[in-house]
Amino acid sequence: MASHRRPKQPSRARVTVLTTAAAAAVVLSANAANAAPSEKLSKGEVKAKVDKLYEEAEQATEKLDGAKEKQQKLQKEISTIQDNVARGQEDLNKLRDSLGSMATAQYRSGGIDPSVQLFLSSDPDDYLDKASTLDQLSSQQVEALKKIQDKQRELAQERAEATDKLKDLSATRTELAKQKSAVQSKLADAQKLLNTLTAKEKAALDAEQAQAASRASSRVDLGNTGSASSRAAAAFAAAQSVIGSPYVYGASGPSSFDCSGLTSWAYAQAGVTIPRTSEAQANAGTRIYSQSDLKVGDLVIFYGDYHHVGLYAGNGQVLHAPHTGAVVRYEAISNMTFEFGVRI
Helix 43-109 and helix 199-219: axis angle, to 10°? Predict the structure, then answer.
């Protein structure tokens, strides 16, 4: 006889769990259906974020330029020291050869004594410290030994200096790579934001920047503003000759520039050497804190950390290399945070 068992009923706890999960699924499904897609940033919002990234990239660029300048300086110093060490070693070898010749001459004349071993020693310091030994040497031999001793000390000092500078160079190269990576990262982020704009929005943004540069250019009135000096005027004229050249981080001419690359290049064309970075340029001359006292060709330093610089163009305008994606152009000083001018 077949058994008729009642099907096993799910436990009350299991029913509760299933019911809750189903309800949650319904809620999530409803939320997903009603959720609005992430809002696209407006052209103005993109520009604001990109401008901020460009500013941060320029801060890193100036640190990059400083590290490059330090690296070049260290490489020159190390090269000079190494050349000095090489020449010093040649001089030391000649002194030792001369001393050896003296010893040979003594031996041939029959006047050699045990102290002659000193002549061929590579380290005569201990021997020279013994007064009894000096009595056995001629004044010429003593003088030769002292020269060897002085030369050895000089070479040891130069080698130690070269070692320290090589360590500094290694640290500078690490800093250089770090700042270069920071610049590239900021620029990549800026490009991603720009890529969210439509072609029409990008064209509008470019047109706005071109119009702003045109307005700034029309406001430049050099006829009513004197130059800081003939060399400042020459530097400004050089900068004018490259208007339209692209901004490239780390570049200092003649076809592309970053901000301090433009100013240092312009003054170089006028026969004046100024530091490479904007921070160093801020200390390169007499500071002028009132914009009304600025003259054409003065450096204009921006932002609290001095990470941007341009050349005063007269009538409240500056000629500068702004940032990646822009070109050397005129711009109103009021568009940036003015700190002070520097008269070279």
Answer: 70
Q: Give CA–CA dist 105/273, Å, rounded.
A: 58
H or E element at residue 322: none
d(CA 261, CA 323): 12
271 vs 161: which has the higher pLDDT: 271
Phi, psi of 289 (to 5 degrees): -90, -15
Which residues have CB under 8 Å from 167's CB, separation 6+? none
Decide: residue 10, CB within 10 A, 0-12 exposed, 13-18 middle, 19+ buried.
exposed
**pTM tops 0.85:** no
Q: Taking phi first (over 0 means left), then psi (-120 to 50 degrees means alpha), and beta for anything else, what does residue 180 get?
A: alpha
Q: Largest alpha-carbon pair distance within the chain?
A: 139
CB neighbours (10 Å) of residue 82? 15
Residue pair 102/85 in contact (Cβ under 8 Å)? The answer is no
The radius of gyration of the chain's CA atoms, rounded to the nearest angstrom, is 37
Q: pLDDT tens across 6-40, in order?
A: 445 544 444 344 344 444 443 434 444 443 444 67
Q: Is 307 a catalytic residue?
A: no
- Does 259 participate in catalysis according to the annotation? yes
Is 308 a catalytic site residue?
Answer: yes
Q: Which of 4, 307, 320, 323 is catalytic?
A: 320
| DSSP codes joined into one string, 102-162 | HHHHHHHHT---GGGGGGG-S--HHHHT-HHHHTTS-HHHHHHHHHHHHHHHHHHHHHHHH
Cα–Cα distance between 225 and 192 in angstroms, integer? Answer: 42
Collapsing DSSP to helix, strand or coil, 190 comes out as helix
Q: Say how far apart CA 179 and CA 67 lie, in whole Å.
A: 9
